[in-house]
Structure formats: structure tokens, C-alpha cells
């Protein structure tokens, strides 16, 4: 997985979709986000570490060990 620098994240955000939330509150079930853009923006505000895997089209935003987001990454 490739880590995306915070100052370069804007060029990737529009390619994110199908956000799933993993947290202690939902027993790490991967609950689908009601609003993908809102969740990604919230993760940015929480200073999550964004990573993507271009080969598989998968991405992750890790806030801490009990909260992370997984999402699909559309090809450029």
C-alpha cells in the first residue's frame, strides 16, 4: 500500500467510493457509510493516515486502532 501525503490527498479524494466504517461502536463489521464524501472529509479532519493500493483498487484511512475506513479507489 502506498501512503498519500496530506498535501496531495485532494487529487485522490474524488476517486474514492463505497466507504465502509470499521469501529468499536459497530463491532468492526464494516458498516457502509451513508455519505462517502462526508466520511472521507471527517477522516481528513481526524488526521487519518490514507493509503491506497492502485493494483487492487483498495484504500484505507486509519484514524487509530479502533477506527478506520476502507474504500474503493477508481483508476486514474
What does this structure look like?
This protein is α+β, with helices and mostly antiparallel strands and 76 residues long. It has one domain. Helix content is 18%, strand content 41%. It is built from 2 helices and 6 strands; from the N terminus they run βαββαβββ. It has a 6-stranded antiparallel sheet with strand order 1-4-5-6-2-3, with helices on one face. The model has no long low-confidence stretch (mean pLDDT 94).
Biggest sheet architecture? 6 strands, antiparallel
Strand content: 35-45%
SSE succession: EHEEHEEE
Strand order in space, largest sheet? 1-4-5-6-2-3
Overall structural domain count: 1
Number of helices: 2
A few lines on this structure:
This protein has helices at residues 10-13, 36-45; strands at residues 2-3, 16-23, 31-32, 49-53, 58-64, 67-73. It has 76 residues and is an alpha+beta fold.
Defining key terms:
76 residues, alpha+beta, six-stranded antiparallel beta sheet
Secondary structure elements and their pairing?
Layout (H helix, E strand, L loop, with lengths): L1 E2 L6 H4 L2 E8 L7 E2 L3 H10 L3 E5 L4 E7 L2 E7 L3
Antiparallel strand pairs: 1-4, 2-3, 2-6, 4-5, 5-6
Amino acid at each position: 500500500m502506498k501512503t498519500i501525503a496530506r498535501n496531495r490527498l485532494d487529487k485522490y479524494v474524488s476517486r474514492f467510493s463505497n466507504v465502509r466504517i470499521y469501529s468499536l461502536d459497530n463491532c468492526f463489521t464494516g458498516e457502509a457509510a451513508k455519505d462517502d464524501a462526508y466520511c472521507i472529509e471527517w477522516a481528513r479532519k481526524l488526521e487519518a493516515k490514507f493509503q491506497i493500493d492502485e493494483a487492487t483498487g483498495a484504500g484505507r484511512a486509519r484514524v487509530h486502532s479502533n477506527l478506520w475506513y476502507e474504500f474503493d479507489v477508481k483508476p486514474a
